[in-house]
Specification:
The structure is a single chain. The chain is an alpha/beta fold and 371 residues long. It folds into two domains: 4-120, NAD(P)-binding Rossmann-like Domain (Rossmann fold); 125-317, Dihydrodipicolinate Reductase, domain 2 (2-Layer Sandwich), CATH 3.30.360.10. Helix content is 36%, strand content 29%. It has eleven helices and 16 strands. It has helices spanning 13-22, 39-48, 56-59, 77-86, 101-114, 128-139, 168-171, 174-190, 268-277, 319-339, 349-368, and strands at residues 4-9, 28-34, 67-70, 90-93, 118-120, 145-155, 194-202, 209-217, 223-232, 238-245, 248-253, 259-266, 282-288, 295-298, 301-304, 307-314. Helix 4 (77-86) packs parallel to helix 5 (101-114).
Length: 371
């Protein structure tokens, strides 16, 4: 297998974490890093046995580098990705693709002219639960999806007042910096949506954007609510995603979901279908119905109920181990495409653009509201 040379711009905490996994992908060799000279970046260079960090302009001109991975704050994504693409490099960039839509469009057009890869690291689509939830929605063992929400009660313990995260000129705001992951997830499940309302609140005294929420209307009039708030101590950081179907609800836990809980009333075939979608799940029966008890109605429809169940499914691995697997899968998928352009990728340049489009729309609507 031909070796692929990797260069990285930015090597903070997440950049180092990602590199530890990217360099495990077969055929990848880390060549150089740039963009920072902080002690942790120098330590990172020592970890991988490469020279100390160099300037960005020099890195993108190195002939032995094929792919540039950008892990800097959002306001730097556009100029650094543009520089790498102009130098003929493939680019993988942390979310968001850019802060402004016109910049994202410009990068995509540049990548297409140069015939280079341009991918935003929206690795959630590589989670096995992504496929399982897609099956649940499309095969409908619980009936039609009616409503969903994602709630992110995030920590701000590592975000001091002067951190770039709070500066919307540098981060783009919470929807753009953070929300794109989840806009992309739901697009994968429900296709494109439309933001119909959005709000935000500011932290007293400091005036920084602390909480945002929006409602998106998807196909078949499915409404999904997204909430992000950065205000918790680290030990209380938590996320929850819930889907309401005609015959029950499904809850996913953590921002990279690893656990599923289903509470539903189902017939025999629906029970079997759920166990096929979530193999080796723990199934508990709360009630069994017979005779006339099997008859029920909802949404002007007759229902045939066999039992009420609670189903628990979850990965045994530590969530960070799962996170690492998703990063490796994302890079391996993109490398497979570079070697064979007929390979169907899970992520393309348009995922980064469309998730940013949704985030910009939500931000604009929230800004239009009085705070």
């Amino acid at each position: 297998m031909q070796t692929v040379g990797l260069g990285v711009i930015g090597c903070g905490g997440f950049g180092l974490f990602a590199l530890q996994h990217f360099t495990q992908v077969e055929g990848v060799r880390l060549i150089a890093m740039a963009g920072t000279h902080r002690p942790q970046a120098i330590a990172c260079a020592r970890r991988f046995g490469i020279p100390d960090p160099i300037e960005v302009e020099r890195l993108v001109q190195m002939p032995e580098i094929d792919i540039v991975y950008i892990a800097t704050p959002p306001f730097l994504h556009y100029p650094q990705a543009k520089l790498a693409l102009e130098a003929g490099k493939h680019v993988i960039v942390e979310k968001p693709l850019a802060i402004h839509l016109d910049h994202a469009q410009e990068l995509i057009e540049l990548a297409q002219r140069k015939q280079r890869l341009l991918v935003t690291n929206l690795m959630q689509r590589y989670n096995p639960l992504f496929d399982q939830m897609k099956r649940l929605i499309e095969e409908k063992p619980l009936g039609e999806l009616l409503h969903a929400y994602f709630e992110n009660y995030a920590t701000d313990e590592g975000l001091p007042p002067d951190h770039w995260f709070w500066d919307r000129e540098k981060s783009g705001g919470i929807f753009i910096e953070h929300g794109v992951h989840f806009f992309d997830l739901f697009e994968g499940w429900l296709d494109g949506g439309e933001v119909i309302s959005a709000q935000r609140t500011l932290r007293p005294e400091s005036g920084v954007e602390e909480q945002v929420q929006c409602t998106v209307r998807y196909r078949d009039n499915v409404l999904v609510n997204f909430y992000h708030g950065f205000h918790q101590v680290a030990r209380m950081d938590r996320q929850e995603m819930r889907f309401l179907f005609e015959m029950g609800d499904v809850t996913l836990y953590e921002w990279i979901p690893t656990r599923v809980y289903i509470h539903a009333v189902v017939d025999e075939a629906q029970t079997r279908a759920l166990c096929e979608i979530f193999p080796r799940a723990l199934l508990d029966v709360t009630a069994v119905y017979g005779g006339k008890e099997r008859q029920a109605r909802s949404r002007f429809k007759e229902r045939d109920l066999y039992q009420m169940i609670e189903l628990h499914w979850g990965m045994e691995d530590h969530k960070m181990h799962n996170y690492g697997r998703l990063l490796r899968a994302m890079l391996a998928d993109q490398l497979a495409y570079l070697r064979d352009p007929s390979h169907p990728r899970r992520l393309t340049e348009w995922n980064g653009y469309r998730s940013l489009l949704m985030a910009v729309q939500a931000t604009q609507q929230a800004d239009a509201q009085k705070v």
